[in-house]
Structure prediction request, 225 residues.
Amino acid sequence: MTKQISNGKCNLCGGTFSKAAMTKHLKSCKQRNGISDTSSGSRSSQKIKSFHLVVEGRYLPDYWMHLEVPANAKLTALDNFLRQIWLECCGHMSTFTIEDKVYSVAPLAEFNDETMNVKLSEVLKPGMKFYHEYDFGTTTHLTLKVVSEQESKIKGKSIRVLARNDPPFITCTSCGKTATQVCTECLWQGEGWLCDECVAEHQCDEDMLLPVVNSPRVGMCGYTG
Ligand SMILES: [Zn+2]
Ligand SMILES: [Zn+2]
Ligand SMILES: [Zn+2]
Ligand SMILES: [Zn+2]
Prediction:
């Protein structure tokens, strides 16, 4: 197996950078594209605090994103965002684990879980690592890192994707061409990645097939992207 370099795109300038170089790139690119903004009467865009987060598949690190998240946003909003862009298939449970505390979308008193109704600024600090889990049957594990905290002019309160990985190149387990579908039955044996041609000859039930999508949840449960 050859290790491919994971590249991604910066949404601020459109440039392509390796995963390793992206954090450094964004530091200079953000400056060019945001804070020194002097355009039209800046009454509407107040400076607010935000976090620069990197999120990646805990066991699938070729899936990654850089996010800018307002510091006064709640964990609920971050959970919703991750579901929308990467995770949601059928409304499973999810939790954040931050410094040994568990923040759950549906907290259970007997486990001492906290709710997600907490502002990021109350639980996060630069340099911190924390975790997200979605679905406790076929779990998707994410690692999040707080790169920095900054003041910037963000319009509105929404979470912004600063950069995201290009789809990793996954090969068909039978012939080596680009896989477009994955058989969720064979995936348990580490196989079942299929190209357009091999999918026609595949033995398993058609219901077992899912499209290959750019998400760490590819091939899990009923996730179609
Ligand atoms: Zn850039
Ligand atoms: Zn599901
Ligand atoms: Zn094939
Ligand atoms: Zn199969």
The helical segments are 19-35, 75-87, 120-123, 196-201. The longest helix spans residues 19-35.
